[in-house]
């Protein structure tokens, strides 16, 4: 039986410091552990490799490397990590591109405060399932 | 104004050989900006020079639903991003970021209240108040500032209609030698008493001219960078 970690580990990447701070406080209050924060896309990829979070929440528009390209690199490096893309725009086209890049979900900032908790719980479940049975003990194949 | 819904045909129709088409080809050949708007501020007509000054290179015809039925307008299509990659006027995401931040804070206040933590919930609501007054209001003010030239010309005309008792109004949109976009609204009406303006300039007795100067497209982009 695979279980959710008691506090799913989240990496936050958004260059709006005030928004990041508010999201971090909300997640900590609602049962997540925020293991790292980043203000640019390239840094977020490096931190995802180093910290091995269950979930990366990443803004679409980021300095250095945009959220879609960062999502691709994170999924290449750590397929079990689930990426939730934040965007200022409600756009089916951007949502499609995020899915193609491997994102678990696309949240526009107009509605995300209501949806973020449920979406991140779903991402945590997917991360556990994607890691596979006994993933933490598994060595190289 | 085009009359798809049975209204009169107008400057947007451009059927070959009609007065509309002749007007269109005439103003297109003028190097000075020429444009016309309806009372709700929609462009009915704009020549290439006006489009260039507005930074909106594309013209197209757009059908809109109105209470009187569908009507066709000349519309100007603005780019989403300027040459520097920034979101263009009217599409800043600043207010969205501020409102998303507010949404997170409110959600946290609710989570805290659900656990009976009234003190921290009050503190979270205090942060919401500060953000509304600070970040969100500032983001909205930036947009209003960028849109100011568009709003000002309509306001100028409304003032003429309401107060000036004028028989003639002249609206000019020009580019100055220094690259500024200069909008002026002048009339031949009652004028005003300059003393009421505390020293601002103005012609006495023979009409009123209001002038607004804003940096041109390249200068505006520089200003937004800071």
Q: Mind explaining what this structure looks like?
A:
The complex is a heterodimer of chains A (141) and B (226). With 141 residues, chain A is of the alpha/beta class. Chain A has a five-stranded parallel β-sheet with strand order 2-1-3-4-5, sandwiched between helices. The C terminus of chain A is likely disordered. Chain B has 226 residues and is α+β, with helices and mostly antiparallel strands. In chain B, the strands form three sheets. Chain B has a three-stranded antiparallel β-sheet with strand order 5-6-7, with helices on one face. Chain B has a two-stranded antiparallel sheet with strand order 1-2. Chain B has a two-stranded antiparallel ribbon with strand order 3-4. Chain B is elongated and about 75 Å long. In chain B, helix 3 packs antiparallel against helix 4. Chain B contains five helices and seven strands. The interface between A and B is medium-sized, with 20 and 20 residues.
Q: From N to C, what is the helix and strand string of chain A?
A: EHEHEHEHEH
Structural class of chain A comes to: alpha/beta
Number of strands of chain A: 5
> Unreliable runs of chain A, pLDDT <50, ≥5 residues?
136-141
Proportion in helices of chain A = 40-55%
Report the average pLDDT across residues of chain B: 67
Largest sheet of chain B: 3 strands, antiparallel
Overall shape of chain B: it is elongated
Strand content of chain B: 15-25%
Helix content class of chain B: 40-55%
- Strand coverage percent of chain A: 15-25%
User: Number of DSSP strands of chain B?
Assistant: 7
